[in-house]
What we know:
By secondary structure, this protein is an alpha/beta fold. The protein contains 13 helices and 13 strands. The longest helix is centred in the last third of the chain and has 19 residues, at 248-266.
Amino acid sequence: xxxxxxxxxxxxxxxxxxxxxxxxxxxxxxxxxxxxxxxxxxxxxxxxxxxxxxxxxxxxxxxxxxxxxxxxxxxxxxxxxxxxxxxxxxxxxxxxxxxxxxxxxxxxxxxxxxxxxxxxxxxxxxxxxxxxxxxxxxxxxxxxxxxxxxxxxxxxxxxxxxxxxxxxxxxxxxxxxxxxxxxxxxxxxxxxxxxxxxxxxxxxxxxxxxxxxxxxxxxxxxxxxxxxxxxxxxxxxxxxxxxxxxxxxxxxxxxxxxxxxxxxxxxxxxxxxxxxxxxxxxxxxxxxxxxxxxxxxxxxxxxxxxxxxxxxxxxxxxxxxxxxxxxxxxxxxxxxxxxxxxxxxxxxxxxxxxxxxxxxxxxxxxxxxx
Length: 370
């Protein structure tokens, strides 16, 4: 094999590959002075709602803000508990804390997403909600989650930061619960050139509360109706997202194809546990925001790939939410803890070629055949 350099994510290409179109968009926005809450943002919010099938969409500064605003709009009180997966970014939990509640991390199932049975077992008299994380471009078993929520009269805010376009039984991530939140961080499947996020909901009353909260308490007519804050998606970033949206189905198709290459070449290695392969005959339609697998000798494999030019990532510092001692959790979650001992991400983005993906697979096979 001829050696090559394959970064985990080449941030510069996010700009360089679309440079002319981006520069033309910056020029158009700039010459109009259309920087804050202009037509580009309104059009993106319309596009996001149309893509997901939601009634309402609000562009926000980032997905963390979006989660905070959604839980604030719900009206958490001190002591209110919200159940989350411990296999998630810290923001899933911190948003609940910021909104006044208490996150309760629970176990993952065989799909490495929140386990519905663990959710049900964690419900107490203080439980008011569930925040399932639609992780790595895959949607949880939301039929079971929503059944639990309905039976126990719980609110559901989906952390769908990594799952725009992902579907479960034909329904889009973010549209199952009371609200769903997406991230447009540069490395996301749909990424802007900075921070960005969006909140969707089918609840008009909740939409109005989130809208006011994200713009200093002002409603859609500009009237101040309550206290709020500033968490608006920049108009320029919205304009950049608008130029990327038309190609989004092809982006997802490409990522699913790369996943199929990984599956083809690595699927028979006993040392690995791969994520589910992309299938057209499954309840899940995954968009492969990330390609996270479990590997024997994970740290040695990571070093070997690095030495051979391949960038990898161990997500979130290699710890689940409940494992950060400074946060005060006391849970013991064996499935999550075992997962984080073995988890590693391979490059998964539009910048890697078929040959790149094959090269990565050949290196991994060579490592285990030593």
